[in-house]
Amino acid sequence: MSKKQISWWGGAALVVLFFAYPAKITVAPPYEVTLLNQFNKPMATAPVSEVWWQTSVERKEHTEQRTTDADGRVSFPERTMRAPLFQRMVGCLAYLGREGLAASCGSQSSVSATGDVKELMRADVTLGSFSNLHQLKLIVEPCDPGQPSIC
Q1: Could you tell me if residue 44 is inside a domain?
Q2: What is the pLDDT of residues 104-143, one digit of tens each?
């Protein structure tokens, strides 16, 4: 084999490795949530849900529900997965084919208060340049049982 052929095969192997290596990707950042009522008081033992999925790799979303502590706080860990670039590219094209061109590929996540509450305010702060920790403050009020359609 000539040096040119060795270089070509070496380059081709690097390209294949680049597209096939299962890189670690963050699907959802870590969240520290504080849940407060409309009077700015902590809501203890209230349910909070996190929903996350990687639309290019997965076909269904994941959900986890946790309960706030006495200070109205709850934490969710960072959600990561491994997937090759090739799989994410093909998966994105397939997702766009199913959902239409208005859909967005990639990681999607959300955190919300669960139950009979209406969200009044949401403040999401990312800490630092090198940290992806999100501090989320949710202010909610209980739904009026007489008017369930408003919640």
Answers
A1: yes
A2: 888 999 999 998 899 999 998 887 667 788 999 999 998 8
